Amino acid sequence: MHTYPTQAVILAGGQGSRLRPYTDDRPKPMVEIPGTGTPIIGHQLSWLAAEGVTDAVVSCGHLAEVLQEWLAEAVLPLRVTTVVETEPLGRGGGLRYAAARLPDPSEPWYATNGDIWTRFSLREMAAFHAERDATATLALARPRIPWGAVETDAFGHIIDFIESPPSPYLINAGVYVFSPAFTALLPERGDHERTTFPRLARERRLAGYPLPHGAYWRAIDTAKDLAEAAKELDDR
């Protein structure tokens, strides 16, 4: 019988420079998904609550007051605490700083980047994490390549054109399950993806959970991503 995490960190401090002008007056997680009337972080909080999370820590940075004001006024489905870095700590340092505010440091926790819009079973991912006795588990996505691909034969003749094919590689989907011991392995400042994750991978303590077939996943990095998300919403 698995006990599933009930606490989570949302990393919401990025500049969102590639999403300008949307991020000129708000942080990236506060950008609204067109057609929903709800910012990205609102969708994330609803998803986390539906997956059994009762407490979330939101790590703020760029235009933190806009995010904090929305959180203070919104009707939220779980308890939310915010933290603001007084100086840049890097992704790993920021994650560690936010994790210090989780209600129970002896329990596992989820984390997600603040620009991810997705829906899949976090409980199934947590079970996968526990079965492998991992210290950290990354959700893995297979995004579509944004360009058309060309297929050739051995002689060099073009035999087909494929519009936006799936990537042959899995990528870090920006959603995580962490064991309690993971927090102490994070750097005080710096990037855990260059330090902690490679170390855990060498020690076979890092697991990768492929998103289930058909699960919706999109990183909202650019205005084009926002338009694509709106189009996909219409198609669903």
UniProtKB/TrEMBL annotation:
List, alphabetically, the SUPFAM superfamilies matched. Answer: Nucleotide-diphospho-sugar transferases (SSF53448)
* Domain called Nucleotidyl transferase: residue spans: 8-234
Instruction: Give the matching InterPro entries.
Output: Mannose-1P_guanyltransferase, NTP_transferase_dom, Nucleotide-diphossugar_trans
Protein name as annotated: Nucleotidyltransferase family protein
What is the scientific name of the source organism? Answer: Streptomyces yanii
Upper lineage is: Bacteria, Bacillati, Actinomycetota, Actinomycetes, Kitasatosporales
